[in-house]
Amino acid sequence: MNPFDALIAALNACRVCAEYLPLGPHPVFQLAPTARLLITSQAPGTKAHLAGLPFHDRSGERLRHWLGLSEAQFYDAEKIAILPVGLCYPGRAKKGSGDAPPRPECAPLWREQLLAHLADLQLTLLVGSHAQNLVLGAGNMTERVRNFRSFLPEYFPLPHPSWRTGHWERQNPWFAAEVLPELRAMVSALLA
């Protein structure tokens, strides 16, 4: 077994957070050494967990729309890698609505090891605050997205594409007018 496949096998067997995961360990990701685009997001939701497929829900539909990609293009692991901050569904948040934050053990344990095998990456989309804070440090998501050009060519910050983002998009019309056209053009050129 080559080193990448051995690492993936070890990741799939991971049980470090098992006692904290209400649906049990089930890492959900999409990786291939040939990927040119990396999507770093929060953690899989319940539908993604059950399907074993990242963004297998309405947030995935919204993200694919933002990117201008079909489902087949989005799930082409040879071109697009998806590596969440937390690889397993973390459960529901104790306060408010939505999912709990990604487990803190996950990214330090797996992220750098996995990224070391993705030598062809040219752009990383930082989808949501958890991904942005992991890579860029603490900061304001809206300001990062508004000033996305300052993070190029390596990173492109985006809001999380959950249902709550519809309200955010209406409050920030510059996102659809200015950010999405550049995002789609970059993704299209990168995957061509």
Give a structural overview.
The protein has a single domain, classed as Uracil-DNA glycosylase-like domain (Uracil-DNA Glycosylase, subunit E, 3-Layer(aba) Sandwich). With about 190 residues, the chain is of the alpha/beta class. The protein has a 4-stranded parallel β-sheet. The two termini are about 30 Å apart. It is globular and about 45 Å long. About 30% of the residues are buried.
Q: Helical percent range?
A: 40-55%
CATH superfamily: Uracil-DNA glycosylase-like domain
Looking at the structure, the CATH topology is Uracil-DNA Glycosylase, subunit E
Q: What fraction of residues sit in β-strands?
A: 5-15%
Mean pLDDT: 96
User: What's the helix-strand series?
Assistant: HEHHHEHEHHEHH
- Report strand order across the widest sheet: 2-1-3-4
Features:
alpha/beta, Uracil-DNA Glycosylase, subunit E, 9 helices, about 190 residues, four-stranded parallel sheet
Concise structural overview:
The chain has 192 residues and is an alpha/beta fold. The protein has helices at residues 3-12, 46-51, 58-67, 71-74, 106-115, 129-136, 141-146, 165-171, 174-191, and strands at 37-40, 80-82, 123-127, 155-158. Strands 2-1-3-4 form a four-stranded parallel β-sheet.
Map the helices and strands.
Layout: H1 3-12, E1 37-40, H2 46-51, H3 58-67, H4 71-74, E2 80-82, H5 106-115, E3 123-127, H6 129-136, H7 141-146, E4 155-158, H8 165-171, H9 174-191
